[in-house]
Design brief:
The complex is a heterodimer of chains A (131) and B (559). In chain A, 40% of the residues lie in helices and 18% in strands. Chain A is built from five helices and five strands. The two termini of chain A are 13 Å apart. The chains are: A alpha/beta (131), B alpha/beta (559).
Chain lengths: 131, 559
């Protein structure tokens, strides 16, 4: 059985410039044996989806602290749907109010990791959910 | 400070203590850990004694408050003369809503204003730009034009209140708007007091709201130094920031080192375009973080003051005392506040604020308990302000200057932070300065490594975060959080249409054309920016002209 590395895209959608968390997660996932591509700042939904396809990732991790997740996350899910992609797991993290999470999950986000999350929990989630 | 003989005697007695009294206790009660560290992870000794500051020379290293090297404070009377300015960073939604919050805060006793702009504004996009979707008014107030600025300061007398504006890449534009609003109030620019953050280097390093590449950005910044020297003598032209560098995960030493290195780069840039150091340096200001470890933070502030004074005197030959004084604003560390059990954050902020006061800050923002969850709710920001007021009026630490001076631990740590920060500055010098260091990713890598280590320590348990990896409880979703009106974006877009239909479009076009021409020369851009702003050119229109001339910065993604 082939033991392929899990490929993860860590992305910063929108104008938010806080990248400490994104970089810490990226490194933690690498340390856990995954292949991680980090997009850097100021990514549009279109750019994120394009990169995810190009890099053939299993997971997209979206990091956002600006409150713009309500617009940007569903937009990204919409674009993935348009491309007929249903096998990429999309997770999110940052400053995302509890009450916004149900809507995001309805849009197709698999999990939201809020402040205080242990990186090991994120690693575990990915390992358990990537087929 | 103490004579060598006395120090050696105490050293001997200390050995006796270690081998006697201490050993007896350790044999029965080992210490909690094998190694004790400061908040930044530096090893800290069990006890500090006179020997640990044996080389300290009072006159040379400490001196007196208001005298070189300003270790003990930049003003002779410090808080006995006047408390630090209580200046809460605030802003959200529309100018109308933010104006309300500013009036509330002033009523509650804050003594200066601090404007938080939304991300589109910070990055020079109007509210109707594609990149602004979902972002308008979310992290600060949306300002698209002078019209919004007029509303923001409606009923606020700009000759009586000082205002700090957290704006970087488009700082010149917002400064011009502020000047224009003041003029309408009958207040001339030379009477205005305040600050613009205007620190692009830390945007590249740690904060991310850059627009243009380094060279044109420096041009804009030094234009502002020159303009303010001539027109606005009471205005702080820059707030050279370490706060964000620390928030990105750096240690205390790195915070001082990279901030002062940025400062050096700005002084170099200004001198290069022909400004005299004593002309612009007195109006440089700084902005630091107040993190968890109270003692380390106090030492950090003192070390920063002494190191900057030396740099200004020895490296740049400054003669004016004001050029050597490091004046700073402080904000308590947002990154330490938790979403879990948010009321605990009130305690954290109190301790952090105390460190800033013991460290001699000129101005202070205290975070609200809901920092990890949302922008401050009204009652949360009131508690944050009260925290400062309790320290000022009830704690007693303000009644004497630099009370922790002479502490063996504090002076030892002040020395060490200064020394280690200087090592970093030398390293950066050897790389060619801050700009090459950023290009090579050196500064970013150092910060990332510290940030990763910090997280690992939390997950391993060596760093305890109360409520997160220890003393957890089952919690329900927090109530009463501030929600930004989701209609803000739409309302701003409407306002923009209305503005564009009412203004003199021909005049705007002409002014933008003049701006474009001027941007292609090395003229000071502030006068033409002011002209554009007064004709109600929007922030986005002005920045688009500059984008077309200067280009846009491309982040070198380094992980």
């Amino acid at each position: 059985m082939e033991n392929k590395k899990i490929r993860v895209l860590i992305a910063k959608p929108g104008l938010d410039g806080h990248d400490r968390g994104a970089k810490v997660i990226a490194r933690a996932l690498r340390d856990a044996g995954m292949e991680v591509i980090y997009t850097g700042l100021r990514q549009t939904p279109e750019q994120i989806v394009e990169t995810a396809i190009q890099e053939d990732v299993n997971v997209i991790g979206l990091s956002i602290l600006s409150g713009a997740h309500t617009h940007l996350f569903p937009r990204i899910m919409e674009l993935l749907k348009k491309e007929n992609i249903d096998d990429i797991i999309v997770i999110g993290g940052g400053v995302i109010p509890e009450e916004d999470i149900p809507e995001l999950k309805k849009a197709g986000i698999a999990a939201i990791f809020t402040p205080g999350t242990d990186t090991r929990d994120t690693v575990k989630f990915i390992q358990e959910n990537v087929k | 400070m103490i004579n060598k003989e006395a120090i050696n005697k105490i050293k001997e007695k200390r050995r006796d203590w270690e081998e006697g009294t201490l050993k007896k206790t350790l044999d029965r009660f080992p210490e909690r850990k094998k190694v004790f560290v400061t908040g930044s992870g530096k090893e800290i000794e069990r006890l500090y004694c006179p020997e640990d500051i044996s080389s300290l020379d009072y006159e040379k290293d400490l001196s007196f408050p208001g005298e070189y090297p300003y270790t003990r404070g930049v003003q002779p009377t410090m808080y006995r003369g006047r408390f630090w300015t209580m200046r809460q960073y605030a802003g959200f939604g529309t100018a109308e809503e933010s104006n309300q919050r500013y009036k509330y805060l002033l009523e509650q006793g804050q003594t200066g204003l601090s404007v938080a702009f939304d991300l589109p504004t910070q990055i020079g996009y109007d509210s109707d730009h594609n990149m602004s979707l979902g972002e308008v008014g979310k992290v600060g107030v949306a300002i698209d034009s002078l019209k919004d600025m007029e509303i923001l300061f409606d009923g606020i007398p700009l000759d009586k209140v000082s205002t700090s504006m957290t704006i970087n890449a488009p700082a010149g534009v917002l400064l011009a708007m502020y000047i224009a609003v003041a003029e309408k109030q009958g207040v001339s620019p030379d009477r205005l007091k305040g600050t613009i953050q205007n620190d692009v280097l830390k945007e590249y390093i740690a904060r991310g709201t850059y627009i243009f590449p380094p060279a044109p950005s420096m041009r804009l910044i030094t234009n502002i130094f020159e303009f303010c020297f001539n027109e606005m003598p009471r205005w702080n032209t820059i707030s050279i920031s370490g706060y964000h560098i620390r928030e990105a995960g750096s240690t205390a030493i790195q915070e001082v080192a990279f901030t002062l290195a940025d400062g050096i780069a700005y002084v170099d840039a200004a001198i290069k375009i022909g400004l005299k150091v004593d002309d612009f340096a007195p109006r440089l200001s700084f902005f630091f973080n107040a993190h968890n470890d109270l003692l380390e933070e106090v030492a950090k502030f003192r070390a920063a003051r002494r190191l900057w004074a030396k740099i200004m005197k020895e490296r740049f030959g400054a003669k004016n005392a004001k050029s050597m004084m490091l004046r700073f604003h402080t904000q308590t560390a947002g990154c330490t506040l938790t979403a879990q059990q948010p009321d605990n954050n009130i305690v954290r902020v109190a301790i952090q604020a105390l460190s800033a006061v013991l460290g001699g800050t000129q101005s202070l923002h205290t975070n609200s308990r809901d920092e990890a969850l949302a922008l401050p709710a009204e009652d949360s920001v009131r508690i944050a302000l009260r925290t400062q007021q309790v320290i000022a009026y009830e704690s007693g630490v303000t009644e004497t200057v630099d009370p922790l001076a002479g502490s063996y631990h504090i002076e030892n740590l002040t020395n060490e932070i200064e020394e280690k920060a200087m090592e970093y500055i030398t390293k950066i010098d050897n790389l060619g300065g801050v700009s090459p260091a950023i290009e090579k990713g050196f500064i970013q890598q150092e910060i990332q490594n510290s940030a990763y280590q910090y997280q690992k320590n939390i997950e391993e348990g060596s760093r305890v975060v109360v409520g997160v990896n220890k003393f957890k409880i089952q919690e329900s979703a927090p109530k009463g959080l501030l929600k930004v009106d989701p209609e803000v974006g739409r309302r701003q877009v409407e306002k923009l249409s209305k503005l564009k239909s009412e203004r003199n479009d021909k005049e705007v076009k002409e002014n933008l054309e003049l701006l474009k021409k001027a941007a292609n020369t090395d003229k000071n851009l502030m006068p033409i920016i002011l002209q554009c702003v007064k004709s109600y050119a929007t922030l986005g229109e002005i920045c688009d002209v500059l984008r077309n001339v200067f280009g846009e910065y491309k982040e070198s993604v380094k992980l």
